[in-house]
Amino acid sequence: MTCGILFQATRAVPVDLAVYRAGAEFARAGIDLYAGPVATGLLFTYPPFSAILFLPLTVLGLDVAQVAVVALNGGLLCFIARRSAARWWPVVVVAALCTEAVHTSVNLGQVNLALVALVLAAPRVGVGVAAGVKLTPLIFVVGMVVRREFTAAAVAVGVAAGTVGVGFLLLPQDSVDYWLGGLFADSGRVYAEPGSSHNQSLRGLLLRLGVESPVVWLAIAAAVAAGAFVLAAKADRVLAVAIVGMTGAAVSPWSWGHHWVWVVPLIAVVGRELAAKRWMWLLPVPFLLGTLPPVLATANPLGAGAVPVLTSGPLWLLVSNTYLLLFLATLLSIALSRRQASRGKSCLRSSRSELP
C-alpha cells in the first residue's frame, strides 16, 4: 500500500506543492503574493516567511520537486513514528499511511508532517519555526504555559516573532498585507464555504448543525481547548503533542482533514496503551478506522466533481465529523485512564492503612 500511495503522489502535480512552489516564485520575482491565485486557481494562504522557506523548490524542476517532496514526507513520517513509538515505529508508519490525513498530505505535497516533526524534534525552536510556516502551531505555546514551561514558551514566541521579522525584512509589502492587512485571519481565503464537510473543525460542525453564532462557536472552542490543555498538562510528551496538535485543528476556523496529521503520534499512544491492556483506549479505535480514505469519501470526497454517497442523516453527520469525534474519544480515554489510575492509588493506600 505504501508504494501505491507514493506512486500515486508522483503521477500528477500535487496541488499544494504547486501552490508552495508558485508562491516562492512570486516572492522571488517580487510579485504580490496575496493579490490573487498563484497556481491552479488557488490563493497563497501562508505567512510570507513560508514563501521564503519554499524558495529551494523553485530551483528544482517540477518532476524533481515532486519526487523530493514525496521522499521528504516519507522520511518525516518515519522520523515521527520513531519518536513516538520506538521499536514499533514501522507498524505506526503503515497504520498512519492508511489514514486520510497522512494519505492526503503525501498526495498533495503538503507541509503538515514537517510541522509535526518540528514540534517533536525541537519543542521550543521547532514550535516557533512551525508557526512561521502555519499559524496553528502557536497553540503549543499555550500548552507550554499550562505545563508551566515558561522558558520554552518564551523561546517559541521569540522564534515565531523572528520569522515574522525575516518576512518584513525580505518581503516587506507582502508582510504588511498579511499581518497588518488582516489576511492572516481571513479563513475565507482557504475555502469560501465554512460549513462544508471539508471543514473538519468545531466551527464546521456547528455550521453543519445550523448554529451560526460566532459567540457560541468561540465559547465551545474555548471550553474544549481548556479541557484538552488540562489533560495534556500531565500527559507524556508524545501524548501531549497529539492532544495539543488536535486541539489546534479542532478550534481553528478551518481545518482540512490533512491538518489532523497529529493522529500519527496518537496511533503510537493508542497502540502502547492497548498493549498494556488499558482497554478504555479502544474508544478512539473506531474513529481511527473511520479516517480511512474510502470511509471518509462517502461523505467528503475530495476529487473534482466527486459526488458524496452520504449527504444527510445521522450517518452523514457521523462520517463528516470523524476527526472531531476521534479527538473527543481520545480526551475521554485520557480522562477514564486517569480516573482508573486514581482509583488504583486510592485502593492501594486503603489496603496499606488496614495492615496491622
UniProtKB/TrEMBL annotation:
Top-rank lineage group of the source organism: Bacteria
GO molecular function: hexosyltransferase activity
Record keywords: Cell membrane, Glycosyltransferase, Membrane, Transferase, Transmembrane, Transmembrane helix
Xref: InterPro entries: GT87 (IPR018584)
Major site of localization recorded for this protein: membrane
Taxonomic placement: Bacteria, Bacillati, Actinomycetota, Actinomycetes, Pseudonocardiales
Membrane topology according to the record: Multi-pass membrane protein
Localization, UniProt: Cell membrane
Name listed for the protein in its UniProt record: Alpha-1,2-mannosyltransferase
One cellular component (GO) term of this entry: plasma membrane
Keyword Magnesium: no
